[in-house]
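Contributing new records

If you add data, match the layout below exactly. Sequence lines come first and carry their own label; structure lines follow with theirs. Keep one chain per record. Anything else will be rejected by the validation script.
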Amino acid sequence: MTILILNGPNLNRLGKRKPEIYGNISMAQILLDIQRAYPDVHFIYRQSNHEGDLIDWIQEANERSAVSLQPEETVAGIVLNAGGYTHTSVALRDAVEECEVPVVEVHISDISKREPFRRNSLLTDVCAHSIIGQGTEGYRQAVKWLLNA
């Protein structure tokens, strides 16, 4: 089984950028912890500061799940932290809405308690599940949800 973990803009700075909001744990450590917790799952991690990359990867995962002949190549779920695109990208929302692979939205901080422009997610109602405000533990919770879905 393969789970795709996608991070959007500025999340390559986890552990360094605003630790009082996003914590001081790097994405490398988060991925290592997840892999240790779920050794039988194959994880693919991708991060981009570019909206189109995220859309391409979601569409790729959707196509892979539809046409894969070997189960180990099938993408079973997507963990998506779209960062700032959560609040602005209709195109990303459309890609998630079309995706037949379950997508779990993750936000490290509680966006409902942040600046007014961050409080609205264009993704929540097109995702299978959302985990918001659980810190970096939200990534592991998203994987657990996908495995139990």
